[in-house]
Amino acid sequence: MTVTTSIGICADDFGLETGINEGILALVAQGRLSAVSCLAQGQYFSRDSAALASMDVDIGLHLNFTEALTGSDLSLPVPRLILQAYSHALSTARIRAQIDQQLDRFDALVGRSPDFVDGHEHVHQLPVIRDALLTALKHRYPKQAIWLRSTRPARLSHALPRAQRVKAHLIAALGAKALRSQAQQFGFQMNTDFVGVYDFSRPHPLYLKMLNDWLSQASTGTLLMSHPATGVDVADRYGVDRVAEYQVLSSDGFATLLGQLDLKITRLSSLNLAA
């Protein structure tokens, strides 16, 4: 007897561009997403936050410390942020203030607390930031069951390019193990493992092929990260890949793949996940 596997699929960067918002809202309506991660400081977050809040989907904060968005007191290039985090040169007070500012804006515009929190470019797992984040969440939402994104890779098919597999493990090495340990101490749940990492700036297999390679290894609680859009700003560094992701995720081919792999797209907030 085949057992259906429940997975999460999250679209990142809601609020950044109109095409991103439109693509994400369409995919939620189609039942192709179970989670949406929001840049609360994004220029277009307020415009579409009410529409998103009315939908059956986990809505979370995409914590930002690398994009110069509205209200960003601290935004650094990723390598510099990593260096300062690991050398403990970041100001805990400034980090906590920016976390609270983003949570304040999220709560006000969505009308409720986040179902989950992750990080734009995975910054939520870095030293100093993860400490301040966990403390802030426990203080602000003491009775709220919030889950956190783990970047721990799932079993990665060797059909995927080696560079992709290496990148996934490098991202996890920046703090996945420490975040999981601290999340357990604070009582937060996490996705079991993580897929969806690839390099937008380099040639890569077709997105549907990568989805097959990622999801063929999925287990209950696996989270797939995505970045779909119906269209993008010409300066968007992810460019055509966002549109390609939207086209595939909305396609009959993706529905067929889910059926072939016996996968069910599920809100992770509804699962009993381990920390």
TrEMBL record:
Mention one GO biological process in which this protein takes part, according to its record.
carbohydrate metabolic process
GO MF term (any one): deacetylase activity
Q: Matching SUPFAM superfamilies, A to Z? A: Glycoside hydrolase/deacetylase
Any idea which UniProt keywords this protein has? Answer: Carbohydrate metabolism, Hydrolase, Magnesium, Metal-binding
Swiss-Prot/TrEMBL cofactor(s): Mg(2+)
Does the record's keyword annotation contain Hydrolase?
yes
Source domain of life is Bacteria
**What span is annotated as the signal peptide, if there is one?**
none
User: CDD domains in the record, alphabetically?
Assistant: YdjC_like_3 (cd10807)
Name this polypeptide is given? Putative glycoside hydrolase/deacetylase ChbG (UPF0249 family)
